[in-house]
Design brief:
Layout: H1 2-12, H2 19-42, E1 49-56, E2 59-66, E3 69-78, E4 81-88, E5 91-96, E6 99-101, H3 105-122, E7 133-143, E8 146-155, E9 167-173, E10 179-186, E11 192-204, E12 207-216, H4 227-232, E13 237-242, E14 245-249
Antiparallel strand pairs: 1-2, 1-14, 2-3, 3-4, 4-5, 5-6, 7-8, 8-9, 9-10, 10-11, 11-12, 12-13
Helix pairs in contact: 1-2
Protein name: Deoxyribose-phosphate aldolase
Keywords: Signal
Organism: Adhaeribacter aerolatus
Amino acid sequence: MRYLLFCSLFLFFSLGCSPDKTNSLASDSQAQEVVDKAIRAHGGKNYEHLNLAFDFRDRHYTATRNNGLFTYTRAFTDSTGRVKDFLNNDGFKREVNGQPVNLPEERKQAFTNSVNSVIYFALLPFGLNDPAVQKAYLGEVTLRGQPYHKVKITFAPEGGGVDHEDEFIYYIHQKTFVVDYFAYSYQTEGGGLRFRQAYNPQVIGGIRFQQYINFEPPNKQVPLTDLDKLFEAGQLKELSRIELENIQVNN
């Protein structure tokens, strides 16, 4: 914001700030404002001091956050016994039947990604202000008769994780600032595109949690920015439901 003001002053005195740069800064500023309002609409400060537990696909997750410090866990039973994963600011570790397990770095990274991904989506849009997030405002769009801001999210390579090439588009309601839809492209396992529609919202402990219908387009060549058009035209195929169960929040 300070740079945008600085650039505007230079324009006033005819010292030059290129139109492309000015438009980009305005887009980023508008996207930031919309995202900030969305985070407030979904939970705001309640995200900062959080003690969350829920079940997802036969696995039990917990997430605690306190001023930037976090601990996420995942617990389940498989052929090896009772497994519990821990992810915090210091990294990842796994226990089986209460005993620590040594894992190769590749598996640690894979488990880190899977635990973090579930928590990340459960707490959306909270993570959209992480330092590696880059925002751009794509304009306005109407979905199912409702007006939305269309915001693109990308990630800087440094701090953006192994999936930093993934791209997201969030559809944030212009009046309520709720994220009712989002779309994304991913590169792992051959890559693909997804579009999610929120349903059955629940406000628990001051935080809005949503379930999602997960859709895919007829082919991978569709531009990410066009998935909303295919959704409106009924040309997306439902793949799955993203449903959190037994949600508990203690702030």
